[in-house]
Amino acid sequence: MTHPEQMSLFDLAPELPAPESLVPAPGHPPVTAPPLPSNFNPDLIPTSAAIPIPPGTYPDLPTLTAHCHQCQRCDLAATRTHVVVDRGHPQADIMIIGEGPGQNEDETGLPFVGKAGQLLEKILESVQLNSERDVYICNVVKCRPPGNRVPTPEEVAACRPYLLEQIRLVDPKIILLTGATAVRGVTGNKEGITKIRGQWLHWEGRLCMPIFHPAYLLRNPSREKGSPKWLMWQDIQTVRAKLDELRQDAD
Ligand code: URA
Q1: Relative to the CA of 155, which of 106, 162, 195, 246 has its CA 20 to 30 Å away?
Q2: Ligand 1 pocket by C-beta < 6 Å: which residues?
Q3: For residue 6, how many other CB atoms are within 10 A of its CB?
């Protein structure tokens, strides 16, 4: 199926700037939407979720980012302050997918910069993973659901083409799915996170691991053996070991 009205967007790609959203974690100034190229035509944006965004639509992350900043595919566009596309390394070996932006993320335009994000940074650091070098971070939905509610299936579906394009363009060795909404939003698996966390899952030829959402760990601070935090520690070590193995295989 061809979509000439969208395909002509590709002509804009060479004029787009570097992805301003790919900047390091907390403490950074708010992200500004990338400036639009002079030949940008807003009529070419698929404003309705009924208009598909097929795989291969975006030649690169900057084009996808510019498009997301104009997106009106679901009701979340009406209440957002910033579209939250990503942070981290665009060719990272590990991609971390969360549920959706919270208040801090909506204000800054960067994913996982609030308390949950700070804990995520600590978890990564504990196994010498660096969020600027080793990981690319994004969410199932790119705009904040009001009151931090769980995004609706319609919102997830409207945003999913962007996520699938991010996965294709970053092409990570490992995908970490934080919490049940991320697992469901990516793989369709509806099982509870407590049941499936820590187990490798093969989806579309990609290696994924469901892990607890850091916000859940903030609500469950015990470090005792068997606690959510303790389990997260096991899981991130499993991920680190697998990454080392995959990097060795690639050498
Ligand atoms: N929780 C998420 O799932 N994503 C964020 O970006 C922040 C908090």
Answers
A1: 195
A2: 98-102, 105, 111-112, 114, 116-117, 139, 215
A3: 18
**Phi then psi dihedrals of residue 63, to 5 deg:** -65, -45
Tell me, in angstroms, the distance from the centre of ligand 1 to residue 138's CA: 8
Distance 145 CA to ligand 1 centre (A): 11
User: How many angstroms does the Cα of residue 99 sit away from the middle of ligand 1?
Assistant: 6
DSSP conformational letter for 99? S
| CB 76 within 8 Å of CB 144 | yes
Q: 221-250: per-residue pLDDT in tens? A: 999 999 999 999 999 999 999 999 999 999
pLDDT in tens, 81-107: 999 999 999 999 999 999 999 999 999
Shortest-distance Cα residue to atom 7 of ligand 1: 112
Instruction: Write down the residue that tokens 């990609």 correspond to.
Output: 206
